[in-house]
Design brief:
With about 300 residues, the chain is of the alpha/beta class. It has eleven helices and eight strands. β4 (about 110-115), α6 and β5 (about 155-160) form a beta-alpha-beta unit. The model is unreliable at about 300-305 (pLDDT under 50).
Length: about 300
């Protein structure tokens, strides 16, 4: 049995209390293993990346169970604490308690839910609609009650999309209401400048000094690229790169498939693919030796003879 101090939630809390933690997106177990191999201490499961990996857009089409299957895969493959997207909570207030329990069962350290009307939109698209503050605060309170009942440190993060709808003042006021409702962490989505991030952090740190803060560094959105060191200076607890690994993998996959279709062989891109040796290293597998489930990714293994 896992001791309370070593649950995924408490491990993530401990990391975020000591420094700003980088959480790259992992949309399957292999990405999770490679992120750990690269030195990351935690991971993020993005709704946008998970849905895209299923071949559907990020508009709330996948189920709670489908998300939990990916979370479990990422958690088991990496052994790292995983913060996971839960969109709008997979339902109304009554559903939030179940979502906390199912995410915990799947191995998640915590989740974030957002204050958009269902069906939601990507946080960096226009045309979003928000639910009333009191309605979303009730959902946060229900999630917080489930967290407290479990007693495992599960992190309840409230995302607000108010910046792109009602402005920065509304982002701050909604965030305060969600902290009052029991949120551990605030995710201010769609901010447009470093100054916006700094103002939100200053206001919320003054309001609740022990609140955790999350910064989203998605590409091609409304937010400029900012280094994690700057977020640390501003008082943020973690930075997510939600879709970076998916975009990198799918971009290269598209290029390789085009080359393969054109040429009929792999010669044009063979030097760009993962070698057998590199694959086995990420899997922690040595041919001829018994593989232990949950083995940690390690250094490259000797190349197989055949």
């Amino acid at each position: 049995m896992t001791s309370p101090s070593h649950t995924p939630g408490n491990r993530l809390r401990s990391l975020m209390s000591s420094r700003c933690v980088g959480l790259p997106g992992a949309f399957n177990g292999m990405v999770a293993r490679q992120a750990r191999m690269a030195g990351f201490e935690g991971l993020y499961v993005s709704g946008a990346a998970v849905t895209a990996s299923f071949g559907v857009p990020d508009i709330g089409l996948l189920t709670l169970n489908e998300f939990c299957n990916v979370i479990q895969q990422v958690s088991l493959a990496s052994g790292l604490p995983v913060l996971a997207d839960a969109d709008t909570g997979f339902g109304e207030t009554e559903m939030l308690s179940r979502t906390v329990h199912e995410y915990t069962r799947a191995g998640a350290a915590g989740f974030h839910i957002e204050d958009q009307v269902f069906p939601k939109r990507c946080g960096h698209l226009d045309g979003k609609t928000l639910v009333p503050v009191d309605h979303f605060a009730e959902k946060v309170a229900t999630a917080a009650a489930a967290r407290d009942a479990l007693g495992n440190g599960f992190v309840v993060c409230a995302r607000t999309d108010a910046a792109g709808v009602d402005g920065l003042d509304a982002t701050i006021e909604r965030s305060k209401a969600y902290l009052d409702a029991g949120a551990d962490m605030i995710f201010p989505e769609g901010l447009r400048s470093e100054a916006d991030f700094a103002r939100v952090a200053d206001e919320l740190r003054s309001y609740k000094p022990d609140a955790f803060l999350l910064a989203n560094m998605t590409e091609f959105g409304k937010t400029p690229i900012i280094n994690i060191s700057r977020f640390a200076d501003m008082g943020y607890s973690c930075v997510i790169w939600p879709v970076t690994t998916l975009r990198a993998a799918m971009g290269e996959t598209a290029r390789i498939l085009a080359d393969l279709h054109r040429d009929g062989d792999v010669n044009a891109f063979l030097d760009r693919v993962q070698t057998r040796q590199e694959l086995y290293a990420a899997l922690g597998y040595t041919p001829g030796e018994q593989w232990a489930f949950g083995s940690t990714p390690g250094a490259p293994q000797p190349a197989p003879s055949a």
